[in-house]
Input
Amino acid sequence: MPKKVLIIGSGLGSLATALRLSHEGYQVEILEKHHRAGGRLNLLEKDGFTFDVGPSFFSMSYEFKELFESQGIPIPFTIRELDPLYTVNMAGRDKVFHIYKDLSRLAQEFADEKNFEEKAKRYLKSAASIFHDTEYRIIKRNFNGMVPYLASLATVPMKHLPKMFRSMWTELERNFETEDVKVIFSLVSFFLGATPFDTPSVYSLLNYTELQHDGYWNVEGGMYKIVEGILPILESRGVKFHYHTEITGYKADGDQLKGFTDANGKLWTADVYVCNADAAWFRGAILNRSKYSEVKLDKMHWTLAPFTIYLGVKGQIPGIAHHNYFLGNNFKAYADMIFKTSVAPEKPYYYVNVASKSNPGCAPEGCENLFILCPVPDLRYKPDWSDAEKLANDIIQDLGERVGYDIANNIITRTVYTPIDWKGMFNLYKGSGLGLAHGMNQIGALRPANKDEKFNNLYYVGASTHPGTGLPIVVIGSRLVTERIRHEHATV
Ligand SMILES: Cc1cc2nc3c(=O)[nH]c(=O)nc-3n(C[C@H](O)[C@H](O)[C@H](O)COP(=O)(O)OP(=O)(O)OC[C@H]3O[C@@H](n4cnc5c(N)ncnc54)[C@H](O)[C@@H]3O)c2cc1C
Output
């Protein structure tokens, strides 16, 4: 009999793990509290418009290719490289920066930065060496505790050490003179859910991944095509899905997990269990581990929470590309306050994705669909979101003025998700959008492990376990957890 694996949650980490395990002959069943698969990589359909709920692009596209090549099947969706990667709009300035991978073209955007191309090459060479020196030593391997982790860390060349203690902003100040380059190059830190002032400069490796290594990609027809591509493959292999099923408890015998119970009291059993819910929150809330009590979780570093707006708009909005950042003119002050304030930002910084610019099927003819993401403090700092509509109105007003289109008066459909909604939909701890942050004390063996501390047959995959958050990274996580299961619970 093949071994049965029960996965809690159907985010990308789960789906990728289910692909790998079912290919290796395991019988897989998936329980999901939401009504649809995908987790944060989800879909909203409303009034003739479709919206990607969370992720809108990804780096390291080769991780998706590896996932499907490992099964001997073609990638079931079409990926497209972004060029330009994105645009950046600064408040009060007419100039819109187009961020190209081609450095000579990018140099024209940063004409005020003397010798930009030469400086960028030097900066990116150093970022590239951090990426390649840590890729297999830290990111793409399992750790069985602190000793092997420290041993692996010790093999990372010493020249990178100062970058662990220097902030990304300081590193940028050492390399570039103009505020424009520093601000724009530092935006990658927000993908880690942090600011450049508290992100270690080793993460300049993200500038290398975006500008030189593999760039950014999205999916023809919208990001949810990833999930829609994977589901039929899993179903054809007999993988069963149960939606509206929330795990609230467990049954165990010594070091063996015997089952999970759902909110209706039903017991779900298997030989091996994989948790795709937040790996830190789950250990505290469901497994009652004191190390992950609410007090302790609150002291950990969590990524910023999303405040998201989904707009269906009549007309074609000019002056806006597929991926766009809209920034204010007080970057440092803004970054210092957004994490810990209890009030909504007055002049918010936000990201806008107009998927209909390249996927016309996402909106009725003559219309656009807009996804707006504004990073905000999580529910520890701002638990009250009764001001959500005002913040949404302010952002829509600001965006309309900056692109010169009366968005507010052309809205056909409008949905707003606050951190309270994000927490409620997917059990994201206090609404944190990307899960645990990636400071030096929360990566590698210091991140909640992908193998449970107590139960021999419980594993984790997803944003808050090793190696971390983001679509390609949870796909790597699925490879790592599958390796463990294959070695420790070989099927048949
Ligand atoms: C607004 C936003 C924008 C983002 N943009 C990008 C981007 O552009 N590019 C990128 O690479 N990444 C992006 N990310 C991050 C990316 O979405 C995540 O890192 C990734 O999707 C996490 O996948 P996961 O495997 O951890 O599963 P999750 O998406 O966390 O899914 C976990 C699933 O488990 C379910 N679950 C939880 N608890 C239970 C329970 N008790 N019982 C049953 N089911 C349960 C949840 O409902 C959920 O469906 C974004 C995230 C957000 C929020």
Summary: The chain has three domains: 4-35+243-298+436-488, 42-101+215-219+304-433, 119-212. The mean pLDDT is 94. DSSP finds 17 helices and 19 strands in the chain. Residues 42-101+215-219+304-433 form a domain with the Polyamine Oxidase; Chain A, domain 2 fold (CATH 3.90.660).
